[in-house]
Amino acid sequence: MSDTEDPQDEFDPVQVFPESEEMDLRPGADSCYKCSTCDTNCPVAEVDDSFPGPKFQGPEQWRLKTKDEDVGVDESVMKCSNCMRCDDACPAGVPLSQMHNTARAEYVDEEMDRLSAEYLRNRILANYGTLARIGSKVPRLTNFVMGSSVAQWANEKLLGITAEREFPEFALETFREWWDERGGAQIQSEEKRVAYFHGDYANFNTPEVGKALVRAFEAYGYQVAVPDQRCSGTPMFANGMLDDARRAARFNVETFHELVRDGYDVVCSCTSCSMALRQEYPELFSFEGTGEVAGHTYEALEYLRIYEDLGADLREAELDEDAQFSYHAPCHARNQGLDGQAVELFADLDGVEMNDVGDSCSGISGTYGWKTENYDTSMAIGEEMFDHMESAPGETGMTECPTCAMQMEHGTGYEIRHPLEVVAAALCE
Amino acid sequence: MAIEDDVLVVGGGLAGCAAALAAAGGGARVRLVSHKQSTLRNASGLVDVLGYVDERGPLVDPFDGFDALPAGHPYSTVDETGVREGLALFDEAVGDAYAGEHTDRNALVPTHGGTVKPTARYPQSSAAGLASRDGDVLLVGFEALPDFDAPLAADHLSAAGVPFEARGVTVAFPADLKADAKVTRYAKVLEQDQPEARGDGEGGVRATLAERVKPHLGGAERVGFPAVLGDTEDAAVRATLEDHLGAAVFEVPMGPPSLPGLRLEDRLYDAMREAGVRISTGNPVVGYEAEGGRIEHVMMERTHQRVPYTAAQYVLATGGLVGGGIDSDRETVREPVFGCHVEYPADRYDWSEPAAFGDHAFARFGVSTDDELRPLDAAGEVAFENLRAAGAVLGGADFAAEKSGGGISLATGTVAGRRAGELV
Lengths: 429, 424
What we know:
By secondary structure, chain A is α/β, with parallel strands linked by helices.
């Protein structure tokens, strides 16, 4: 460099990425320094070498496409299970799952045949809530039909939904029916208010989880609201159905934004739901209030731990029956820093023995493991977790995620409980 | 309600793990928080103490070089005693998985570039490959794994003057893996050892691999593979290969991402869980509140909310320039969590030397401490009475040039963690 110029004075950074409404993934792609930490965390790449891994699906593919407009999104993006482990792993803050979500949506929009069985199947799986709404009107009949081998055969042959899995049963009374029946909130409070985002699964399939949440929060003196809501969008992101997700997200943000303004915080019992509201909504959408809702959303136990002294209360409580739980931390709980929470909280609860079954992925990743072509991969990923569950004492599993619970049950035959059920049993009885 | 513990360690690498284990060993209730996965998984899995100093090296005995270290080096703060304490804690935490504790002398471990690295502790998987051992070596690379060029590495070893014959050969990996298969995929395939349909062998993948290597064996008594021989079951993978080859089998440590690094991370995290350390990962510590020269709590950012974490004592082990514990822009160098003072030349052009392997000032950027590892402010006073620093966040050492990173992390982590635990 010449002595006459001082580059420090000359340097005037140019704003390359102006604030815009459209997603600009350039800064994310530029941050990737190719350490491949994401690839070593990918549960799919470990069992299937035809999947090129998150580093390719995110920053590399983005660059390839930017350079050449004729290059489409590679079909391998559909093999990504959307576990989002790469997000958590990246030391450079590359928004990998955001890149995968947009690439997948582009692939579905531009490359996938709308009339294909695969598109139809994915659309059906992604919109589980719509089907559940209809099916749960006549739960006994639906359970009977869906549990029949004829339905399983038809699902497999016509749609590519694996016949290996048993369809989850609908509850005879949904959570919302129970909530209306009991006359809604039993506690009124101006200061302590939470709005419950139950999602579809706790409503239609596991209302006992929702009831446990209500009992626990009411025991702490909270006024609970249960507003109308749609699916969080998690299965829609995972299937590249971004338009469906946008519709659902808009409805949810509008509803919950109003409650947040009235002093409510949002609590979720499903860690994928809380993940969607907290991270995916602000990454993918910009409706009014998206950020505010994200900033007020919590996982239920996390909330009680921060704003109440749940840890100390559990130390003084006890569970009537001795219980041994094999706990699996869902990937999406991991992404929110919640993976150690249940084990930590229940370690001091009398009558409970907690065994963490390790940091592997369960392999089902929502709708992923329901697809015939993914079933074997899904079970191969889950093998480590099944082994650890079987070598841990007891025959009861525990997890926050409904589809992880399906996989745990499917692989071991164990009954699977939700941490909220234990909290309610310990503190409310 | 804040989440409360006796000792809070910020950072999940080697130094953070050592600090957490040392504090928990003294009976304290310890929490370790780590934002992203640590750089351990990018590291070789080797633990060095001191390999080069003052243009001397590789050193036969790392402790012989301590006198020549510059003032302000972390080793002068913790002393040889601290380093031995750190190594003892490491040996206990990793158990049989590592070797090297039988002697003070450095081991010379061949790396994937064909250089030899002086190191104090090494995984058992590398033990048979030590350059100081007798026995001719065959290095084996895989066609679809470009990260390890075995013939080149062998030539490099020979050129370095090793006292044995080193040859390299490239074979096709049996299971017909795709060109871009991840190292974790190789490890999984070898671990599962399924009979492979597309290969030429009748046994499992391990047997087929051994069959493909055999014709090249010649008089080699030791066979080195890239470090992808299994994840948790690496000993079993090596044992099968040894049976079939009739030769000792070792792993050559690779660049990132590294299986030996991953295994070391697993070992240390298992040891922490066994010691009752609570581990919270995935969210960054972004600030703190202090009163009267004491840190009251740190703030963790959890997707848009700031949650306080409280402890009586804190250890800062966030890493250096690579790990993110030290940050810089065009004007300044800083420690982002507690804003600890970092010394650096005012003129940015004095931060580095023109030569790639020059004596760079930036390599030594980091916080300075008192003799109890408490960071000092710009005036040279203790910044917070209940904060200690450990590992690469400390200034004064060029660990890449010295080959001292592992020892510094273990020693300062152990001393800082033990002291923090004693004070609660």
